[in-house]
């Protein structure tokens, strides 16, 4: 797997790159936000995961994460000394797939890298036997992870697509918040609840269908299939 390591400390980067190489990763080292974004042109350049340090010399790491998420669905793991819950939530809201606090155990980091890379293609989509889901004017192409409304492609982040695909497979069925968080984010961490709300709001806005995803107060969400 190709991995993009965004780290301004050359000594830290060299040590980590050596460990990752021993475990079969091909590492590209970017020392700044600008270098990282350049490496991700066009469309991720085949990277399986981005390890993103937040303390960069030219840009705030959160800002870099937001820019990465706008141009590619490549999984992003934030690596930082900022351990407070607010920082974690902020990073996840910006589209990070995981958040590792320094100092960390190398084995745990490797496990998290493999975990987010496995989640790149949802298991449901891979094994459903269906190539596309149709919901009125909305078309969800599972193999290509592309969504269109009335034939016009709508750019979604990886998590937005995963969330929409999950709800769309059983229109009208109420998914509990805990279930959605477990299946889309693969975690039971309570702080992810706010991230779920943000992603639902973003989907409603991008698809220009506020009524498509209905909030079931105190329970969760369900997709209301549009009438043709």
From TrEMBL:
It comes from the Bacteria. Residues 130-225 bind DNA. The keyword Transcription regulation applies. GO terms for molecular function: phosphorelay response regulator activity; transcription cis-regulatory region binding. It comes from Streptomyces aurantiacus. Residues 2-117 form the Response regulatory domain. The modification 4-aspartylphosphate is found at residue 53. This is Sensory transduction protein RegX3. GO terms for biological process: regulation of DNA-templated transcription.
């Amino acid at each position: 797997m190709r991995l993009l390591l965004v780290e301004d400390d050359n000594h830290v980067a060299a040590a980590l790159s050596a460990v990752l190489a021993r475990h079969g990763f091909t590492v590209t080292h970017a020392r700044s936000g600008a270098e990282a974004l350049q490496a991700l042109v066009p469309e991720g350049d085949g990277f399986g995961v981005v390890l993103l340090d937040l303390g960069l010399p030219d840009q705030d790491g959160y800002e870099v994460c937001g820019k990465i998420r706008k141009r590619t669905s490549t999984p992003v793991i934030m690596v930082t000394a900022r351990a407070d819950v607010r920082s974690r939530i902020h990073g996840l809201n910006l589209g990070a797939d995981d958040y590792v606090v320094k100092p960390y155990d190398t084995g745990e980091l490797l496990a998290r890298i493999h975990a987010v890379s496995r989640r790149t293609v949802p298991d449901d989509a891979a094994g459903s036997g269906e190539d596309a889901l149709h919901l009125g004017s909305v078309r969800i192409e599972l193999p290509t992870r592309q969504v269109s409304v009335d034939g016009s492609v709508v750019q979604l982040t990886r998590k937005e697509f995963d969330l929409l695909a999950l709800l769309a497979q059983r229109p009208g069925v109420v998914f509990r918040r805990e279930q959605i968080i477990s299946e889309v984010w693969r975690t039971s961490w309570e702080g992810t609840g706010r991230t779920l709300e943000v992603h639902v709001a973003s989907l409603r806005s991008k698809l220009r269908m506020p009524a498509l995803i209905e909030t079931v107060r105190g329970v969760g969400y369900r997709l209301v299939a549009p009438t043709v």
